[in-house]
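anyone seen this seq b4? input:
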Amino acid sequence: MNGEIVNIPSYSLKDGDVVAVREKSKSLVAIESALASNSNVFEWLTWNADIKTGTFVKAPERLQIPENIKEQLIVELYSK
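predicted toks r here
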């Protein structure tokens, strides 16, 4: 992230942050297949597939997230 290694899955990005695949990981089969199988284009992320680098444009609105997330279940879990 912005030239630094981050290994925190819950790391919060800020607008304009650059995220990239580490140089030694770019040729891994798992990375190659994951990137090849995902052709989604999102408004909040610009992606350069040639150099495997993306820029976080802005935080997405809830309607822009295509996943089926049930927020109420998350709230119930953490309110126990």
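The longest strand covers residues 45-48. Residues 18-78 form a domain with the Structural Genomics Hypothetical 15.5 Kd Protein In mrcA-pckA Intergenic Region; Chain A fold (CATH 3.10.290.10). kinda curious what u guys think
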